[in-house]
Specification:
The chain contains 4 helices and 2 strands. By secondary structure, the chain is of the alpha+beta class. The longest helix is centred in the middle third of the chain and has 18 residues. It is elongated and about 55 Å long. A two-stranded antiparallel ribbon has the order 1-2.
Length: 97
């Protein structure tokens, strides 16, 4: 993923008028492994699919990843804050095309 500035530079170079911005949503997740549960439904799916043929390797990966996520995203008093970065870009060409 590019930064908003990189999208702006690239798309204005193609002759577009560009609005580009970034925001970070901080989700408050709950449960014993909330970040792992969050990524299981999205970006982790291809990894788990690739490891499906070897359940022991899959479980070892999940154990190590779970530990890393717990360290990177420790729970707070009301849940686990999870920053979720999003980049938005709107590009227009003259003439509305």
């Amino acid at each position: 993923m590019l930064t908003p500035r990189e999208y702006l530079d690239h798309l204005t170079g193609l002759g577009c008028t560009v609005d580009a911005w970034e925001t970070t949503y901080v989700h408050l997740l709950t449960g014993p492994d909330p970040v792992l549960d969050w990524v299981r439904g999205t970006g982790l799916r291809p990894v788990l699919d690739a490891l499906a043929a070897d359940p022991e390797e899959r479980d070892a990966f999940l154990d190590a990843y779970r530990a890393a996520l717990r360290t990177a995203y420790p729970p707070g008093p009301h849940g686990t804050p999870f920053p979720f970065r999003r980049v938005f870009v709107v590009a227009r060409r003259d003439g509305g095309r």
